[in-house]
Amino acid sequence: MLRLVVGVLGLACLIAPAAVAQQQPDTVLLERGQRLYKENCALCHRDLGAGDPPTFPALRGSDQLRDPMRVVRTIRQGRDRMPPFPGLTAEELSALVNYVRNVWADGSSNVTTEEVAAVLGGLEETLPMGSVWDGVFTEAQANRGQAAYEGACGTCHGHRLNGAPDDPDMRSTPPLARARFLRVWQGRSLATLFEFTRATMPEDNPDSMTEQEYVDVIAYMLLLGGMPAGDAELQPDAQSLARVVIRAGR
Amino acid sequence: MTTKDDRPSKDPTPNKKALNRRDFVKTGVVAGLGSGVLLDSAEAQAQVPASGTQQTVWHYEADVVIAGGGCAGLTAAIRAVDLGASVLVVDQNFDLGGRMLHSAGRMSLGGGDPVQQRDMSGESDREGFVTVAPIEEPEELDDDVELLFTDLTDWSVVDPKGQAPYRYNERELARAWAENCPATRQFLIDNYVRFSRVAGTHGGGGLSRARLATCFLMLGDVTDIKAGTITAEDAGVADRERSSAFAPLRMNNASRSVGPNAVANGAALSRCLEFSAREKGVQFILHRRFDEIVREQPVAGRVLGIKAHYSPRQHPESGEVLQSLWQNGNIDERRDTVNIRARKAVILASGGHAGNPEVRSMFYPALREPAFPTSGRALLGSGGQDGSALIAGLRIGANLAGMQQNLSYFTTFHISTRLGTRDAYTGMMPGHPTFGFRGSAGFSVGSSGFEEFIAVNQVGKRFFNEVRLPARPGPSAYPGDRGAPGRGLDHTPLDWRNCRKEWVREMYNYDHGVHAALALNEGSEAPDYYSGPLWAVFDQDAVDRNGWELRYPYVSDNGYFFQADTIEDLAEQIYAGHEFQRVPLKYLADTVGTWNGYVESGADPEFEREVDAPMNRIATGPFYALSIMVIWHDSYGGLRVNGRQQVVDMQGQVIPGLYAGGEAVGGFNKHGLGKGHVHGYIAGTHAVEEPSL
């Protein structure tokens, strides 16, 4: 699974075999959609939309793509274990939805930015967007996270969080802090990190910790990565986590 | 192999407490000696007429004599004592446990073993330490001997190198192993070993069911094997930069697979077995290398005993002879060579050959390079993993088996991500008696850290894409394999689709960097054409970017870490200061200059580094060089044995009175601990059934 993730992020762009659309949307918009797909979706749904069922559903052949406005709402608000993406604009959403539907559904009804904006207007907006530099966790939470980390994560990801296990028998793993972590994760939200981690980790028993433990471990990762602690704890709630973006610097 | 130490003994008097000479003096060497173990040199020096032409002077004797006190040897010793035999174990190290002591303590057995059954029922262990719920579903634990045997001989399974580890296993060995797994797990539990919840399985453990459990102890106020507790200091968790004599490797947090305050690794296995062995009266001669097997005729007749020479492990600075953690049962014997008679059988459990460059050349000639001592050299010394069983066995006519299996195990040799230490495999920190043999703990940058430097060979030239250099393939996998838990039921044994070429193409993941690292270069000279040491070269900016702690105990002035204000000076320091740097790094300055040009242009035409990771200039002094080591991880290939662990000769006949197990044995590609303990259990069982001389 990790190998695949690295593969997705490290590969040059592959143009997915596009189904022949009835209405050809313009190429610029499709390319924009593809780029947005790679940045936001391919982590789980993979380059070719095959996902990794049952953890990550396939888009290819999914009837969930039939209604474009349902897709818009799913991306914007999240659904089940899929995190919300509140940072995407109406324009970006329309490019993304049209790309996904052109490649993996029949793409017969493209949506316009205006139509998407109308749907978004009906959705309740809550918190403003922020970043991991805004003091989004507390030191006490990070300390709890360290204890959970050492039990569940540290054996493989190492005490420096650099992906170097202390046990020489073990293979290296992805780093969880600092530059090489940020290279993979910057631009994504903590909700994506939270749900991806729950779905895949610990590798030998995914989803075996409590939601609170996962979010505490993320607090510890942020602390080790040099992000400042604040007054309020990070909450194990995808809607609020989705509004905290991982950035390399302020 | 180093020559033996011929220094005269300082104290020729053996430790009288450990000996029981009364029975011997009365009855001589005839059979039926109960627990008597020695023949004292000062007394009789009994002349035992061998049935051949030569006579051997025996200094000690026991029913069962075991070469090696690691996972196979300690298990065999306890098993034989349990069945009424007297047992003497000879080990070359200053302490017991071999590589087991330094392992992660993860052991895949199975076949419906007691831990699988415990977890299926949802029960805790008998002491109530295991408080977390079972990790695997009952169906994943529903195992039996037939399924385990099928898994261990499944021709269809491949690994990410596209190789098939199981199809070459000797079927008789696999069958015996599978049949003895449940009994061995119970045997270990009965000898103070505590097992966590079962989680997944091992490369080599078969894919169809969950079979892996980890050995643990509970943190407490005292270290007490009977109570199952260990102090934080002994577990190495009190201070990350300090090891104890008890556990060379800091113990892992096992809260997820056991419960709060559980710590796990090979020390929780090795020390418990050692404690039990000493409690039950097994006797030990440490600091003594096993050299030869004594047989009635050079290549015929029964095995009578072994010869072993004194080879003390001394502290590299003080010269003091290192002491084992526990002493009861030790025989303090310092004569140069002693001959030890086995009334029933000799069991060879002295490990593999990963530490012997000459033997390694049988498998991979380029790995004769002594710059890469590998596989726990600091912990075990030059006598560890030295191929002694294989060498001695060949001399008396034994056959070998599984000689290709080193190459068909996914991780036999690879590039370590731990830099800047003489022994890049072990994890000892100051506080363990062997830390001085490595001089630094090394600094593990992880695979991803390799993008921060250039890797150069002994003449200072790059040789591979650094990012891909340390990549290691994983264990065997099948189509749709999603990892533990719950991975086994989906595997269909013996299904051709497990190795269809489409699956192999999808799964194959091997970069061959280790082979580039061992390649000939301009500094390779006849007759050996050694490839020479490897260096990670970087600048102060890399240190600052990563927050690397280049300080003691991670690095030290031990010839594996250098720092200089210019690249030219760095190259000179390496040449002057590293024991295996045979030629100057004459291209290093040019290589760094060329690299910086590549960074400027954003492309590395030689190795296409830009595809994998950002490239950084090496321009801000001071400059650093840390050794990169090729390590030989485990040993496969060794003596041929049958299903009773009896060594078999070149004619296919059993060599009477000779048994072997663990990494000394070939023909069975299975991860170390599971292999060793079950082999020891089988060998101990059958050795006792031999008629007494």
What would you note in describing this structure?
- The complex is a heterodimer of chains A (250) and B (693).
- Helix content of chain A is 46%, strand content 2%.
- Chain A is an all-alpha fold and 250 residues long.
- Chain A has 2 domains: 16-121, Cytochrome Bc1 Complex, Chain D, domain 2, CATH 1.10.760.10; 130-245, Orthogonal Bundle (Cytochrome Bc1 Complex, Chain D, domain 2).
- Chain A is globular, with a radius of gyration of 19 Å.
- Chain B has 3 domains: 16-100 and 276-352 and 387-409 and 633-689, 3-Layer(bba) Sandwich (FAD/NAD(P)-binding domain), CATH 3.50.50; 110-174 and 187-274, no CATH class; 415-472 and 510-631, Alpha-Beta Complex (Flavocytochrome C3, Chain A, domain 1).
- In chain B, 23% of the residues lie in helices and 16% in strands.
- In chain B, the strands form 8 sheets. In chain B, strands 3, 4, 11, 12, 13, 14, 25 and 26 form an 8-stranded mixed β-sheet that branches. A 4-stranded mixed β-sheet of chain B has the order 8-7-10-9. In chain B, strands 19-20-22-21 form a 4-stranded antiparallel β-sheet.
- Chain B starts with 21 loop residues before the first helix and ends with a helix.
- Chain A binds chain B through residues 1, 3, 10, 55, 150-152, 154-155, 158-159, 162-175, 178-180, 183, 202-205, 208, and chain B through 103-104, 135, 199-200, 240, 249-250, 252-256, 265, 411, 416-418, 424-427, 444-449, 451, 470, 472, 474, 482-485, 509, 545-547, 611-612, 614, 631, 633.
Task: Tell me the helix content of chain A.
Answer: 40-55%
Described by strand count, sense and barrel closure, the largest sheet of chain B is: 8 strands, mixed
Give the helix tally of chain B.
18
Strand content of chain A: under 5%
Secondary structure category of chain A:
mainly alpha
Which CATH architecture of the largest domain in chain A is right?
Answer: Orthogonal Bundle
Question: What's the CATH class of the largest domain in chain A, please?
Answer: Mainly Alpha
The CATH superfamily of the largest domain in chain A appears as: Cytochrome c-like domain
**What is the count of distinct domains of chain A?**
2
Nearest-integer average pLDDT of chain B: 91
